[in-house]
């Protein structure tokens, strides 16, 4: 009996202990009071120093000489007033003004003009003291660049040639004569700035000289009226004057010249006037461009004396008569004048 009671007691103890161990123990849940949201602290204003735009632009301009760039800017390296590369026609304002003889203020970019020029003068065409015999380089000029808006234009609506570059009537003709009617419009050939507007009674008559961004200068002679002023910027195709026959002229025409550093060269190197087009986007200036000057310096001339004939002169210098007539711009039927200057070679 006592054993039975002990067995029941142990059985109950075992059952209750096992149930307690295997039963799920739930965590005690503590209910907390609702916490109010933390008040936000107003953000303090950030103190920004004042930005002086004018000072910044002055500093940037002083370091670079330009506010237009092709790709990237290195502020540590000062840039030239104009780009060193002749292949790009990017022009940037420098705001550097230079006083010239007429008290006109001209931006220095026009004085340098791609560093092909230095002085500025509105009275004389050739002011550059450029000796072609010492020029042994090849300078490549980009005449126009439509992508950047620098275009070209024929100087007239039509361009029939009446007289070409070279010797004519015993003297050198430094341009190409193009036929026109009185008061026909005359146009700037390229973008540029007017350097000279003047009158030459015994030569060009009313004429204009324009310095261009591509490194050339153009001359327009025998006008009846000039429509531009010195220092005025012009675009290719802008009307600069009216056709005429002023100065040393035998009829209405335009005397048109192309010059590099003051020296004229044959415009037909650049233009095909018969086809009314420009030959190429580029022009190479070489010693051969001014070959005629070297020939002229080595030329031989003869001054006609009383009683001399072409035959006698040709025998004296041992050259054909045809060579004398060709170089002197005369024919075999021309009457020789005492004191007339004939080119022999």
From TrEMBL:
Protein known as: M23 family metallopeptidase
Pfam families in UniProt: LysM, Peptidase_M23
Species of provenance: Algoriphagus sediminis
Annotated InterPro entries: Cell_wall_metabolism_enzyme, Dup_hybrid_motif, LysM, LysM_dom_sf, M23ase_b-sheet_dom
Domain LysM, chain residue ranges per copy: 300-344
PROSITE patterns: LYSM
Superkingdom to which the source organism belongs: Bacteria
Lineage: Bacteria, Pseudomonadati, Bacteroidota, Cytophagia, Cytophagales
């Amino acid at each position: 009996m006592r054993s039975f009671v002990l067995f029941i007691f142990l059985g109950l103890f075992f059952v209750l202990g096992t149930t307690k161990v295997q039963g799920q123990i739930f965590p005690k849940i503590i209910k907390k009071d609702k916490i109010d949201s933390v008040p936000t602290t107003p953000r303090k204003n950030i103190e920004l120093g004042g930005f002086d735009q004018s000072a910044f632009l002055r500093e940037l301009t002083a370091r670079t000489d330009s506010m237009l760039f092709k790709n990237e800017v290195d502020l540590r390296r000062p840039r030239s007033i104009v780009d060193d590369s002749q292949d790009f026609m990017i022009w940037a304002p420098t705001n550097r003004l230079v006083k010239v003889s007429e008290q006109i203020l001209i931006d220095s970019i026009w004085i340098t003009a791609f560093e092909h020029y230095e002085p500025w003068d509105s009275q004389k065409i050739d002011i550059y003291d450029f000796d072609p015999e010492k020029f042994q380089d090849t300078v490549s000029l980009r005449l126009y660049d439509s992508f950047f808006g620098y275009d070209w234009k024929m100087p007239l609506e039509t361009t029939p040639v009446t007289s070409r570059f070279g010797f004519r009537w015993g003297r050198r003709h430094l341009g190409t004569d193009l036929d026109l009617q009185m008061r026909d419009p005359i146009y700037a050939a390229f973008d540029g700035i007017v350097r000279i507007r003047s009158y030459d009674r015994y030569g060009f008559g009313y004429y204009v000289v324009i310095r261009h961004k591509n490194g050339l200068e153009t001359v327009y002679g025998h006008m009846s009226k000039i429509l531009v002023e010195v220092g005025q910027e012009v675009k290719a195709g802008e009307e600069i004057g009216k056709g005429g026959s002023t100065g040393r002229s035998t009829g209405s025409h335009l005397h048109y010249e192309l010059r590099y550093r003051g020296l004229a060269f044959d415009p037909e190197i650049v233009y095909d006037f018969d086809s009314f087009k420009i030959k190429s986007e580029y022009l190479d200036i070489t010693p051969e461009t001014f070959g005629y000057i070297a020939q002229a310096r080595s030329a031989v001339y003869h001054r006609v004396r009383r009683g001399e004939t072409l035959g006698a002169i040709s025998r004296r210098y041992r050259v054909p008569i045809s060579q004398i007539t060709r170089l002197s711009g005369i024919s075999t039927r021309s009457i020789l004048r005492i004191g007339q200057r004939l080119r022999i070679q």
